[in-house]
Amino acid sequence: MTSWKNQLKNSVTTSQDLCRELSCNKQTVELVAAHYPFRITPYYLKLIKKIGKPLYNQAVPDLRELSDPSGMADPLGEENLSPVANLVHKYPDRALFLVCNECAMYCRFCTRKRKVGKPEMVINEKTIAAGLDYIEATPAIREVLISGGDPLLLSDQRLESILQRLKKISSIEVIRIGTRVPCTLPMRITDDLCQMLKKYHPLYINTHFNHPAEITKESAQACTMLAEAGIPLGCQTVLLRGVNDSPEIIQELMCKLLTIRVKPYYLFQADLTRGTSHFRTRINTGLEIMKGLIGNVSGMAVPTYALDAPGGKGKIPLTPDYIKSLGTTLEFISYRNIPCSYPNYEEKTET
Fold this sequence. Notes:
Layout: H1 3-9, H2 15-21, H3 26-33, H4 42-51, H5 53-59, E1 87-91, E2 94-98, H6 125-136, E3 143-147, H7 156-167, E4 174-178, H8 181-184, H9 191-197, E5 203-207, H10 217-228, E6 233-239, H11 247-259, E7 263-269, H12 283-293, E8 304-309, E9 314-317, E10 323-326, E11 329-333, E12 339-343
Helix pairs in contact: 2-3, 4-5, 11-12
């Protein structure tokens, strides 16, 4: 058995094992797990023991998950945007294709915690075929994001069969994979996997790191292997109270990501998912963090701060307010809070 499969086999999935490994309340874990499953790989468990709360909070069931009256089961309206099961067609030219119902670790803030890792999320040969058929019959779709769950928990052969079919669809120009395994199960990134993936360019991977401590020798190696297979890597970080909600932590994380060849892509405001209210920050917190990044670190290290609008209305960028007025002159402040102006030229029409 390969090392990554051993990691999954030996993951913590019961309240008894979890409370033996970490300081937590067995009754609380059981109450929460009855609604929302948990799994923690030995790799990530070791990191939790070393680092503490910022990683513990992401992985360990919390009683507050059961007391969130303002949260929504499906905050992004995905079920209403699914023409076939497990395929979300929100934007005109791209589709989200859910091909796996498991994750190496079940994040407590997950947008799809209503179904990921649960029997309600049925994915099989029939649903995969229906999704592929829909994509093929909808030529407006030029880009597919493969997600789940985590698609890299599929075997190399199963994942390749999906990639092969997508590449045969003439309208598909770009394929993306969304995965957190470089962070939570880095040993899943093998030479065989990379050799297989590199056959399907243009292929992009968006991974997910939330705290600088998640960037380890192992996760760096995983990202390096993917990058050396020619795969551009981005990171979709979620802003989480008690995990990374400070300018110092986000700045360190974004700069560290660049050192492992991962481009910061999005910093997401936490979704309005039921069971996650204790993670959500004020919008102002994110805006202040962005002010701390812009101008103070390389533009390469500055993600787009965004929220995914409820009901499937799409991603909305949130930007600190630098503009004071806009007329014949643009009046604004610099990142150092210095007043500035710039002429707002009128376009000349040639005669």
